Amino acid sequence: MIFLTVISLLVSVGLLAWVLKLRARLAILEKQSSALASRLGSTPVAMRDTAGKPMLLTIEILNPVELARKESWFAGAFGSLTPTLLRRIVYARTLTIMQDQLLQFDVKADVQLFGDA
Fold first, then answer.
1. Reduced to 3 states, what is the DSSP secondary structure of residue 84?
2. Which of 69, 95, 107, 111 could be 76's S-S partner, Cβ–Cβ 3.0 to 4.6 Å?
3. Quick one: pLDDT band at residue 82, thresholds 50, 70, 90?
């Protein structure tokens, strides 16, 4: 009985440490995103087609658990326990990657994340 209690405690502590690490990483990504947004300018440039309507590009990540697993084996192991947090982190990382890649090609774009990932 004590053995199971100790194992449960260790798993809980490990999971808590992982969640705290992911939250810290998310905070860093949000700070980097804010810095990049301020560097690009606070007012987004509206893209318009010939009819004057805004153009919008959307991305839906279909395999967030697989992507998280590539970053950390722990993410894959416990991703089912915290799927919302896992999706938020994957989308935040994707946002940063997209911003960096667009800047490398001198693309001026307003890249934002909307809704609950």
1. helix
2. 69
3. confident
Beta carbons of 45 and 108 less than 8 angstroms apart: yes
d(CA 90, CA 56): 21
Q: Mean pLDDT of all residues in the chain?
A: 77
Nearest to 25 by CA among 115, 70, 85: 85
Q: What are the distances in angstroms from CA 96 to CA 3, 35, 56, 92?
A: 43, 11, 18, 6
**Would you kindly state where each structural domain of the chain is located, as residue ranges?**
2-104
Mean pLDDT across 45-62: 67
CA torsion 59-117-107-57 (nearest 10°) is: 30
Q: What global pTM score does this model have? A: 0.50
Residues for the chain: how many in total?
A: 117
| Residue 54 backbone phi and psi in degrees, to 5 | -65, 145
Question: Six-digit token pair at 106?
Answer: 């001198």
Instruction: List the structure tokens of 85.
Output: 């947090």
